[in-house]
Amino acid sequence: MASVTAEPIDTTIEVPGKRTPLVTGAHDYGTVTDAVCRLAECKTPTAWYVALGISASLMGMLFGLIGYLIITGVGVWGNRSPVFWGWPIVNFVFWVGIGHAGTLISAILFLFRQDWRTGINRAAEAMTIFAVICAGVFPGIHIGRVWLAYWLFPIPNQMAMWPNFRSPLLWDVFAVSTYATVSLLFWYMGMIPDLATLRDRATGKIQQFAYGLFSLGWNGSSRHWHRYERAYLLLAALAAPLVLSVHTIVSFDFAVSQLPGWHTTIFPPYFVAGAVFSGFAMVLTLMIPARKICGIEDLLTDRHLENMTKVIIATGTMVGYAYAMEFFIAWYGGNRYETFAFINRAFGPYAWAYWIMVSCNVISPQLFWIKKIRTTPWMIFVVCVFVNIGMWFERFVITVTSLSRDFLPSSWGYFRPTIIDVLMLIGSFGLFMTLFLLFCKFLPMVAMAEVKSVMPRPGGQSDHH
Amino acid sequence: MATTIEQPVKTKAEPELLGLLAEFDDPNALIEASKKVRDAGYQKWDTHTPFPLHGIDEAMGIKWTILPWIVAACGLTGGTIAIGMQYWMNAVNYPFLISGKPLFSIPACIPITFELSVLLSAFGAFFGMLVLNQLPKLYNPLFKSEAFRRATNDRFFISMDARDAKFSEIDSGEFLNSLNPVNVEEFWSDVESPKLPRNLKLALSLVGVILLMPPALVAYKRSTTTNSPRIHIVPDMDFQPKLKTQNTTNLFSDGREIRPNIKGTIPRGQFKDDNIPLYFGLKYLPEDQDVVGIALQDEKKADEKQPAAAEKPADPVLDAAAIEASKLDKLPWVTEFPMPVTEKMMARGKERYRIYCSACHGLGGEGDGLVSLRAMDLQQGTWVKPASYHTENVRKLPVGRLYHTITNGVRKMPAYGAQVPPEDRWAIVLYLRALQKSHEINADTIPEAEKRKLRDTK
Fold first, then answer.
1. Quick check: A204 contacting B, CB < 8 Å?
2. DSSP state, A115?
3. CB atoms within 10 A of CB A177
4. What is the 3-state secondary structure (H, E, C) of A120-178?
């Protein structure tokens, strides 16, 4: 098949009457495959080994610290009366929030027929799984006696006891584990045809065996594709409400309690918007360097980046609205504890954290209204890093300020993290990056089959579905 | 030549023709070709594409899959399991009563019901798709074709199964060639079934053996006994670095872990000096004697006398009792109850007596309680029969003295001061007095109505 030669085009401009291509450059089906499989098949760049070395050491540090924590006890953290939910829960909510972008891109954008998702969905889903793994670590070790973690699940036990199904913390166990399982299925199922591609191109025995095993004998049969597409659509339809439910239930952990600053009905939509916001920022933070290093800029074009920044403006504005509305309700509701909690948040001992959060989350995404910033990758990267910082601080502000000053002034306190807290957060980034780097190296980073299906057919006829 | 007619000895199965494979380089050409194959009436054939091709379903005549129904069934199952589980676990098997709220309410069940419905639906979609597609199927004769490797890359294929009723090697081959493919090839079954590489087999069996070891070890340990202490994997809070009552420590100069009361302090509920008769059964506290001390000393002396008593036939119990009596007799016991005597107090005394005293002393106070009878039956040398209340000695004792006995015990009788509050002890003394009275009453003094009642119950 002859390659179609194309002029370099600016994909961020809409030309009336013409569909802006999702794949730029002179690509046909074969070259798309080559571009995606290159990293798995070629000699690994030294930079990858360096990056993996650093992340794997940080991951090792995290596991070492977890061992130390288990042997010593949760006292190694800064969690003290009155703040018993310190950084571990902040980190959990931060990571689980990041884990929302992948499934949102795969499921909701799929149902809305947003074809540009094909360029980013695989990496975003992978990021989701890895973020949920990082999230799962923290509540797991936060329970103190980790060897009793099975008490979280309704497993028959020698005490003849069952968990309390009216506790939001138990809802959370079900929500996060269901989300992790369904995201994994969704990700893996989407990857089966691409693993088959890698299998058919593999030359080494080990690669042939491993890819062959995980591609389950996929042969591209149209009868298989028919059921596969049905299953994919159904999984998307199931994952769409699921992704909204997960952070809703995470927000119930806070909202169902009676603590001023937590006990608000705005939490579920506010948390979901924040999760999508932070997730998209993290996808961009990872993909901007990754697309450069892996040479897939033709598949992951500036248009993809620009579309995602638009989602960030929308969700960032929603988050800003939620911050304002919380203050309004605190005043309008007339509850003096609630009023105090919010005044204390903005002007109390944690004002520094609050204003970091506001400037990163509300002000920085508004820069994306400027087209120059929206279409310049390094500027997007900088803004997204700020959004990530801001979203971590949002969870810190919500968790710590409310707990540190509740109803009884005699038990007020000021939270101070220990060095273990800080190192564990850094270590969780190590775990995340290690998994992501392994993914970039060994698995198809872009959904090849899906990209091919949204490319124009050789005859000029569009295969738009 | 003779060799031409010689048939090779059939040691292995002949390779068998499984079907034909036509390769196309254009998706539109594949769709056109598929329509022709469909119209020609072939049943067992398929197309292979690197991505889901729009329009191929109609071109091939693929029927709608039943997958959505499987998913719906799984979702309903998940929801039902979730509701049933939450109801049974929290309202039936282990009821959680929290602030008087109902044991079961739908709103609190919604999150988990939703999650489990989605989870099982997702399993249904994923595994249903695999089962309907007959995957995983790691061995496929098509994979032997070098050209077919591009089916997952950029080429499009039609495969035709030799088992199709219309299939014939020559006609079908010509038919496929007429569809303008890039290439047509045959695919054959293997002469011998493929074997796993030797190294892989070794590695797998090694992994299997290693995986079997922990359960085997657990099973062995569970079915045998050992003299060494069990392995304490998770000590939880079994070994705590804390001070306990009976242990020694270097922390304090007296070496004891238990700390004595600080001089001059009174523990909560232990202030008794404002009502000596009620708390001690004495008119006043004798200045030079510790009342509790006397009782304890005497009991100790009685115990020490036991071995000596073995030589002498004299009853050691009586001996000890005599010493005790001589000391206690001199104390200023109260003779009147230090609290108002009421009907209610009597009823309370009866109830407490039956709970705490009757097991040894018997319901009537003759010292014939079940515990005592059993001990006598066993002929235990150390058992001291409880005294009957109806002897002259006991009758003469002042109420204060009886109260003291209940509080501090006597001989083998333990002290009940710690478990029976003072008011209840006095009530028991009152009931004890009533029992004594009931054994020496003059029948003539009983009113006629009461006598009749006594007869009736007999």
1. no
2. T
3. 16
4. HHHHHHHHHHHHHHHHHHHHHHHCCCHHHHHHHCCCCCCCCCCCCCCCHHHHHHHHHHH
Mean pLDDT of B207-221: 94
Query: Closest approach of chain B CAs to the CA of A88, in angstroms?
Result: 22
3-state secondary structure of B240: coil
End-to-end CA distance of chain B: 129
In tens, the pLDDT along A399-414 reads: 999 999 888 889 899 9
Note the pTM of the prediction, 2 decimals: 0.76
What are the C-alpha distances in Å from A59 to residues A87, A435, B180?
18, 10, 56
Contacts of B393 (CB under 8 A, 6+ apart): B387
On the question of pLDDT at A1 being above 70, the answer is: no
What is the b/e burial string over A125-161, where b = at least 16 CB atoms within 10 angstroms of the residue's CB? bbbbbbbbbbbbbbbebbeeeeeeeeebebeeeeeee
Residue in B46, B128, B150 nearest the CB of A231: B128
Residue corresponding to tokens 């998940």:
B78
Residue A5: per-residue pLDDT: 45
Q: Do A221 and B47 touch (CB under 8 A)?
A: yes
For the record, the structure tokens of B394 come out as 């006991």
Give the highest mean pLDDT range of A149-153, A437-441, B122-126, B389-393.
B122-126
Question: Which residues 85-144 of B have a C-beta within 8 angstroms of A?
Answer: 85-86, 89-90, 93-94, 96, 98, 105, 108-109, 111-112, 114-116, 118-119, 121-123, 125-126, 128-130, 132-133, 135-140, 142-143
Cross-chain Cβ contact B67/A227 below 8 Å: yes
pLDDT computed for residue B287 by the predictor:
67
**What is the reported pLDDT for B324?**
61
> With an 8 Å Cβ cutoff, are B49 and A1 in contact?
no
What distance in Å separates the CA atoms of residue A341 and residue A403, rounded to the nearest whole number? 10
Q: For A267, phi and psi rounded to 5 degrees?
A: -55, -50
What is chain B's length?
458
Task: Supply the ipTM of this predicted assembly.
Answer: 0.91
Residue B179 to residues B176, B200, B277: CA-CA distances in angstroms? 5, 43, 120
More confident residue, B329 or A77: A77
**For all residues of chain B together, what is the average pLDDT?**
83
DSSP H helices, A295-406, are 302-333, 336-347, 351-358, 371-374, 377-396, 402-404
What are the C-alpha distances in Å from A282 to residues A95, A285, A308, B320? 10, 5, 11, 89
Q: Taking CB atoms and an 8 Å cut-off, how many pairs form between chains A and B?
A: 205
Helices A419-442 and A29-41 sit at what angle, rounded to 10 degrees?
130
